[in-house]
Design goal:
With 300 residues, the protein is α+β, with helices and mostly antiparallel strands. Among the domains are: 79 residues, Alpha-Beta Plaits, CATH 3.30.70; 60 residues. Helices cover 67% and strands 16% of the residues. A five-stranded mixed β-sheet has the order 2-3-5-1-4. Helix 6 runs antiparallel to helix 7. The chain is elongated. The termini are far apart.
Length: 300
């Protein structure tokens, strides 16, 4: 009886082990069938999947757009100086002002003389290059010097904007305290602090407006000097009359210079010559007086 029970138990164990092996093999085959296709089959020649490549292209496009927008948002202060030589300074001055006004600018300062002039104009920052090119193409104008300076004030503008926001919030907080103040001392202290913070806010606002104005309108200084047209000298005929006229003019010029020399020497001749002539006359007479007694004594 004991042997039968042992054989039954052994047979049951063998059947159970066989069933577990079958389940494991079936589950393994099902897992193999459900396994995804290897990544190498979906890979493209570029080394990534189509979704990865499209995502990469989209990221590159966004980065390029962000770079271009950042470049456009740069706050630039541009100033330029141009020196011109022109035959007609007044006409060129009017043309330069006309170009600035046509581009949306205006004349800020002007100085004009007979042979020179200067004007300082304000033009929109994005139109400065066009105005410079138009000035260089003016008729009868020669550009002797051109200078362009650009200053990036983006960080200054951002800093002032942040400080303005903080200062406005600070002013609003102090106003809230003023509404809740109950005693005269509290009201006085809060009003003094509010006045101080409003002054700082106005100072920041003026600085911000100055920076934005310099960015919006560029400064162009144009200095003009006269460039005289070449003088055409007519060739005179080479004949006797022209030669005689030239010689006569030379003779008159020489005679005039001689008169000038005589006029300069005559005062000295009068002042020095008269005493010298008197001295010589006196000495000659004295010698004659001394000779006459000697001649008389020698006569028998």
């Amino acid at each position: 009886m004991g042997r039968r029970v042992g054989l039954a138990v052994a047979a049951f164990a063998v059947v159970a082990l066989a069933g577990c092996g079958a389940d494991s093999s079936s589950s393994g085959s099902a897992a193999d069938m459900a396994a995804p296709v290897p990544a190498q089959q979906n890979a493209q020649p570029g080394g990534g999947t189509p979704k990865q490549e499209s995502a990469g292209k989209a990221g590159a496009g966004e980065a390029q757009q962000a770079g271009s927008s950042a470049q456009q948002n740069r706050q630039l202060v541009r100033t330029a100086t141009v020196e011109l030589r022109a035959t007609d300074v007044t006409a060129v001055l009017a043309q330069v002002k006309g170009l600035a006004i046509a581009e949306g600018g205006y004349s800020a300062q002007e100085r004009s003389q007979a042979q020179s002039a200067s004007v300082t104009v304000k033009v929109p920052g994005d139109r400065l290059d066009q105005v410079l090119e138009s000035i260089g193409r003016l008729e009868g104008v020669e550009v002797s010097r051109r200078e362009l300076q650009t200053e990036d004030v983006t960080e200054q503008v951002v800093d002032v904007e942040a400080r303005l926001a903080n200062q406005r919030a600070s002013v609003e907080r102090v106003r809230g305290l003023l509404d809740r103040a109950s005693t005269t001392a509290e009201i006085t202290d809060v009003e003094a602090e509010l006045t101080k913070r409003q002054s700082e806010l106005e100072s920041l606002q003026r600085r911000y407006e100055t920076l934005k104005g310099q960015v919006a309108m560029s400064t162009l200084t144009v200095v003009m000097s006269s460039q005289r047209a070449p003088v055409v000298v007519a060739e005179e005929e080479n004949n006797f009359l022209s030669a005689f006229a030239g010689g006569w003019e030379a003779l008159l010029a020489a005679f005039g210079w001689l008169l000038v020399v005589l006029g300069g020497v005559l005062p000295f001749a009068v002042v020095l010559g008269v005493p010298a002539f008197g001295y010589l006359w006196w000495r000659r007479r004295r010698r004659r007086t001394a000779v006459e007694p000697a001649v008389t004594a020698a006569t028998p």
